[in-house]
Amino acid sequence: MNEVKALNNDHRSVDPAAVEMLRIADREGYSNIWERYEKQQPQCAYGQLGTCCRICSMGPCRIDPFGDGPTHGVCGATADTIVARNLARMAAVGSSSHSDHGRKVAQLLRAVANGSNTDYRITDADKLMAVAARLDIPTTGRQQLEIAADVAKVAIDCFGNQDEEPLVFLEKYMPAKRFARLKALEESLYQTTGAKTGFLPRGIDREAVDILHRTHFGCDHDPLSLVAQSVRCSLSDGWGGSLIATELQDILLGTPTIKSVKANLGVLEEESVNVVVHGHEPILSAKIAEMAQSAENRQAAEAVGAKRVNVVGLCCTGNEVLLRQGVGMAGNESHSELAIMTGAVDAMVVDVQCIYPAIADLASCFHTKFITTSEQAKIPGSLHIQFDEHHADAIASRIIKTAIDAFPNRNKGRVYIPKHTATAVVGFTVEEILKALGGTPQPLIDLIVNGTIKGVAGIVGCNNVKVQQDHFHRVLTTELLKRDILVIGTGCWAVAAAKAGLMDLSAQELAGPGLKAVCRQLGIPPVLHMGSCVDCSRMLNLAGAIADHLKVDISDLPLVGSAPEWTTEKAVAIGAYFVGSGIPVHLWPLPPILGGPEVTRILTQDAKEVLGGWFFVEEDPVAAADQMERIVMERRSALGI
Ligand code: SF4
Ligand code: MSK
């Protein structure tokens, strides 16, 4: 290994396990996201600014943001129209991904309730009762499955709702003041402009279809109208599809509880059959994690010379099984190829979202079975084993058997597992946080009011090859802790924080004096893992519980969000529903909107007045923490605390 290569790899990731694996990638010539990113340079500036359009066959059209070239597309579309249309389509795709996940969980709950699926069951009856109560579904004297059927029906109806009323889930879960503000905003815009501008989502499917329609050639060209619909669609994700996914998964698979786990590539075991579950939907992977423990599978593993079947997670499917079943967490998005390069993965099983197609080629260099399971995420070169929740036990068994059968083909001479792991205390659902606080948010509110904790930051999002892996996550999180700001979050950020040891109890020492004392007293880390991407709904629920308790709007609270290292269209939807819920959101890397000055102004300035939440961008993590702290302090003084 020469020094230049090592320096390059240090530049690619701050995670020592990743740096070790990238040295192997360099030595062996394994393709990876960093190497392919370098080959993509220079990337298209029009794309980065959002000013390219190819929605009709007169295009593609490009607007020169510096005014030297064309100022309009062939049809006359301006840069702002093009930027806003592109943004809206990102929000629609992101929302649809989360919400389609929620739909499948709702359909499964319906099947369990009507007895047509016996591979799953109601695991958390208390959560079922809590969700039913929230939705005003009667529970007294009724059978559990009858109640479950009603909950499933309300959820499924939210997808196809065709009237003009807001989504039932949103109406029942969104804090009263936020709901009233969005409703009043719709009415005042109607009175002042005469045009309908909706913010309260009606049907989950409808809001995404609405964007596909209004961004068709020759429809909505008004940047404000397009941005407003982007927010409405995203709210149908946060307070609709994602919320349904979270709540109903808790009913079916159990609400996560606080537990201690290990994170990073060191959770792979040299002597075991390693099955990595990756993607987002835990319905299958929860089964795989459960069945891997069976005596039959243990014996089958032993029969091929392995110690056991070791199921570990990646990305958000990983977060789901980590929080509920305590499996090890192999890594976040950028770790997916690195895990295969260890040579110790016998099967990587993927469902949907955030899966690199490159894994197929890479896996073919090893004995690793790369198994796709969703008709919505087929990848050439993989082994496809179609998941069907009505035969979940049988399919999970077949997948585990495939991994066990692959184990003897492992080339032990090529196995290298970096020894890095960190301990992480995870599983901070709203239920667990309230339990730790004695059943009410009041102690947390008291701590915020008396300044022991200045505020709460919610961090979400991915890895992005444009940012040194995990660097922004680590520095921003540590900076916020120092400033007595409690950090909560989800997704690949949560994995980054876990790998960095920030979810270990020892991380209390990194916190400012107030936060440190609180965490010591409660026996919790200062960084709380709330789940997967869809579990951003748990953050909304926590914010909502505090807002309702104080009878204020979420936008009054000292809360702030960030999506550093964001990558996906889902992150756009999450950011937009945070903003629509009244929470300012930091973003890095730059979103593709800067080519549209009006869109940029709406999202970074006007939204503050209108929605109480807005976007801001900052490249430097310490400066981002400064800005986030400033927002928290401004909100504190507005509250008079
Ligand atoms: Fe060009 Fe207008 Fe067609 Fe877009 S819609 S590709 S700007 S002509
Ligand atoms: S997995 S959306 S890369 S967080 Fe949810 Fe990670 Fe971002 Fe996918």
TrEMBL record:
<dbReference type="InterPro" id="IPR016101">
    <property type="entry name" value="CO_DH_a-bundle"/>
</dbReference>
<keyword id="KW-0004">4Fe-4S</keyword>
<dbReference type="InterPro" id="IPR010047">
    <property type="entry name" value="CODH"/>
</dbReference>
<feature type="binding site">
    <location>
        <position position="52"/>
    </location>
    <ligand>
        <name>[4Fe-4S] cluster 1</name>
    </ligand>
</feature>
<dbReference type="GO" id="GO:0050418">
    <property type="term" value="F:hydroxylamine reductase activity"/>
</dbReference>
<feature type="binding site">
    <location>
        <position position="61"/>
    </location>
    <ligand>
        <name>[4Fe-4S] cluster 2</name>
    </ligand>
</feature>
<dbReference type="InterPro" id="IPR011254">
    <property type="entry name" value="Prismane-like_sf"/>
</dbReference>
<dbReference type="GO" id="GO:0006091">
    <property type="term" value="P:generation of precursor metabolites and energy"/>
</dbReference>
<feature type="binding site">
    <location>
        <position position="280"/>
    </location>
    <ligand>
        <name>[Ni-4Fe-4S] cluster</name>
    </ligand>
</feature>
<dbReference type="GO" id="GO:0004601">
    <property type="term" value="F:peroxidase activity"/>
</dbReference>
<keyword id="KW-0479">Metal-binding</keyword>
<dbReference type="InterPro" id="IPR016099">
    <property type="entry name" value="Prismane-like_a/b-sand"/>
</dbReference>
<dbReference type="GO" id="GO:0051539">
    <property type="term" value="F:4 iron, 4 sulfur cluster binding"/>
</dbReference>
<feature type="binding site">
    <location>
        <position position="354"/>
    </location>
    <ligand>
        <name>[Ni-4Fe-4S] cluster</name>
    </ligand>
</feature>
<feature type="binding site">
    <location>
        <position position="53"/>
    </location>
    <ligand>
        <name>[4Fe-4S] cluster 2</name>
    </ligand>
</feature>
<feature type="binding site">
    <location>
        <position position="316"/>
    </location>
    <ligand>
        <name>[Ni-4Fe-4S] cluster</name>
    </ligand>
</feature>
<dbReference type="InterPro" id="IPR004137">
    <property type="entry name" value="HCP/CODH"/>
</dbReference>
<feature type="binding site">
    <location>
        <position position="56"/>
    </location>
    <ligand>
        <name>[4Fe-4S] cluster 2</name>
    </ligand>
</feature>
<keyword id="KW-0560">Oxidoreductase</keyword>
<dbReference type="GO" id="GO:0043885">
    <property type="term" value="F:anaerobic carbon-monoxide dehydrogenase activity"/>
</dbReference>
<protein>
    <recommendedName>
        <fullName>Carbon monoxide dehydrogenase</fullName>
        <ecNumber>1.2.7.4</ecNumber>
    </recommendedName>
</protein>
<comment type="subunit">
    <text>Homodimer.</text>
</comment>
<comment type="similarity">
    <text>Belongs to the Ni-containing carbon monoxide dehydrogenase family.</text>
</comment>
<feature type="binding site">
    <location>
        <position position="75"/>
    </location>
    <ligand>
        <name>[4Fe-4S] cluster 2</name>
    </ligand>
</feature>
<dbReference type="GO" id="GO:0016151">
    <property type="term" value="F:nickel cation binding"/>
</dbReference>
<feature type="binding site">
    <location>
        <position position="44"/>
    </location>
    <ligand>
        <name>[4Fe-4S] cluster 1</name>
    </ligand>
</feature>
<feature type="binding site">
    <location>
        <position position="492"/>
    </location>
    <ligand>
        <name>[Ni-4Fe-4S] cluster</name>
    </ligand>
</feature>
<dbReference type="Pfam" id="PF03063">
    <property type="entry name" value="Prismane"/>
</dbReference>
<keyword id="KW-0411">Iron-sulfur</keyword>
<keyword id="KW-0408">Iron</keyword>
<feature type="binding site">
    <location>
        <position position="533"/>
    </location>
    <ligand>
        <name>[Ni-4Fe-4S] cluster</name>
    </ligand>
</feature>
<feature type="binding site">
    <location>
        <position position="462"/>
    </location>
    <ligand>
        <name>[Ni-4Fe-4S] cluster</name>
    </ligand>
</feature>
<keyword id="KW-0533">Nickel</keyword>
<dbReference type="GO" id="GO:0042542">
    <property type="term" value="P:response to hydrogen peroxide"/>
</dbReference>
